[in-house]
């Protein structure tokens, strides 16, 4: 198509390696997919049943644009019970997944030329949202030396008069790093000092390992008025396909941002909202079970990588392992293509997540333990052949 028909806000990043890999995969059999952030586990039964019950009782229409009142009240309780700020239901917007929230926030806050500071490697839709708003994404490069923690010392030199938003993804995708409490406090102090809005992305906050804990930003002194808490149900409750997330913010921001959400989606799917309500009100044992499953899978993968002398950062949360494959003699991008073509295993290179070097790959713990063991064996064969 003639490029004159494509808006200038759409950036041409060339052929995406994910597209290349999916094209290769279409010609292969028995591929073990460890790329996407969508676990193989189905939504817990009681949540599915709540959705079915809702459909059978008329949940086939629009809801309030901001979401079901009962769901927003439960979200407020859930945030506070996990150490977060005290929100009212009119300070919460239920969205069609967390990504819709990202784009609504970016378009509602960023003017052309404004800067949004976000961790790299980090979740790439934040970069896309900034570009769509004609804003400038500023990357804070992080390193394996300190387990990819984003630090205030690394952020402050990047702050300019155009800086407007600081994004904290905690735990981080793709690295699995949990930002230490003391760094969260320092980053909050930076936001106050330089008058920044903070997006506190806590989508994986319920899936932390061992003694690692997430400090919600909005609960810190002086941060409620400048923090947008973003979360959802996809990860902790295995509800990726239901498309239901939310953001919470002070009323003066919510009033404007909720109108953008209304324009995008009118409302989150009614059936999904009822399912999300059941997720919060029901037993949380399913979340604890998921954490145990992810830790078991993580151990299998990490043991295999250690046997191959492939370094990786400590997985502290989420369901990813971020590993340095440069010892194979290949770039991360070439390693991913080689592993797929010769080992039938899909993983993604860190460059997809804004990494400054092409050395790291993200392994997703989205397959059963036996499949991960098989993937480790395939990786060993491919690496030994190089």
Q: How do the strands and helices of this protein lay out in sequence?
A:
Blueprint: H1 17-25, E1 32-33, H2 45-56, H3 69-81, E2 92-95, H4 98-109, E3 115-120, H5 125-132, E4 136-141, H6 152-155, E5 163-169, H7 181-193, E6 197-201, E7 227-232, E8 245-248, H8 251-265, H9 270-281, H10 285-307, E9 320-324, H11 332-343, E10 345-346, E11 348-349, E12 360-364, H12 369-385
Parallel strand pairs: 1-10, 3-4, 3-5, 5-6, 6-7
Antiparallel strand pairs: 2-8, 7-8, 9-12, 11-12
Entry summary:
The protein has twelve helices and twelve strands.
Q: What does this 3D model show about the protein?
A:
This protein is of the alpha/beta class. The protein has helices at 17-25, 45-56, 69-81, 98-109, 125-132, 152-155, 181-193, 251-265, 270-281, 285-307, 332-343, 369-385; strands at residues 32-33, 92-95, 115-120, 136-141, 163-169, 197-201, 227-232, 245-248, 320-324, 345-346, 348-349, 360-364. The protein has 2 domains: 3-43 and 285-385, Aspartate Aminotransferase, domain 1 (Alpha-Beta Complex), CATH 3.90.1150; 45-281, Aspartate Aminotransferase, domain 2 (3-Layer(aba) Sandwich). It contains 12 helices and 12 strands. The two termini are 41 Å apart. 48% of the residues are buried. The model has no long low-confidence stretch (mean pLDDT 95).
């Amino acid at each position: 198509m003639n490029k004159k028909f494509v808006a200038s806000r759409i950036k041409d990043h060339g052929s995406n390696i994910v597209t290349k890999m999916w094209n290769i995969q279409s010609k292969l059999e028995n591929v073990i997919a460890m790329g996407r952030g969508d676990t193989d586990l189905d939504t817990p039964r009681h949540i599915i049943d709540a959705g079915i019950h809702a459909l059978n009782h008329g949940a086939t229409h629009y809801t309030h644009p901001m979401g079901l009142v009962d769901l927003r009240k439960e979200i407020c309780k859930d945030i506070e019970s996990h150490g977060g700020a005290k929100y009212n239901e009119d300070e919460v917007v239920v969205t069609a997944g967390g990504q819709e929230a990202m784009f609504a926030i970016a378009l509602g806050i960023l003017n052309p030329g404004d800067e949004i500071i976000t961790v790299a490697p980090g979740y790439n839709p934040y970069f896309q949202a900034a570009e769509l708003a004609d804003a400038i994404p500023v990357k804070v490069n992080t390193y394996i030396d300190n387990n990819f923690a984003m630090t205030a010392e690394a952020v402050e030199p990047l702050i300019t008069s155009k800086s407007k938003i600081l994004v904290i993804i905690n735990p981080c995708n793709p690295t699995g790093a949990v930002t230490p409490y003391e760094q969260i406090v320092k980053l909050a102090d930076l936001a106050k000092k330089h008058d920044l809005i903070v997006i506190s992305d806590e989508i994986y906050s319920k899936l932390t390992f061992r003694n690692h804990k997430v400090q919600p930003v909005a609960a810190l002194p002086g941060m409620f008025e400048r923090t947008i808490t973003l979360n959802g149900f996809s990860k902790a409750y295995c509800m990726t396909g239901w498309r239901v997330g939310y953001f919470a913010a002070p009323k003066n921001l919510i009033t404007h941002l909720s109108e953008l959400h209304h324009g995008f989606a009118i409302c989150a799917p009614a059936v999904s909202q009822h399912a999300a309500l059941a997720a919060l009100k029901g037993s949380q044992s399913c979340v604890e079970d998921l954490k145990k499953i992810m830790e078991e899978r993580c151990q299998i993968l990490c043991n295999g990588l250690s046997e191959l002398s492939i370094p990786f950062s400590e997985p502290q949360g989420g369901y990813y392992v971020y590993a340095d494959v440069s010892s194979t003699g290949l770039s991360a991008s070439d390693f991913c293509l080689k592993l797929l073509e010769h080992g039938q295993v899909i993983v993604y290179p860190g460059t997809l997540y804004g990494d400054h070097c092409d050395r790291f790959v993200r392994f997703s713990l989205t397959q059963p333990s036996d499949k991960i063991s098989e993937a480790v064996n395939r990786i060993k064969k491919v690496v030994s052949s190089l």
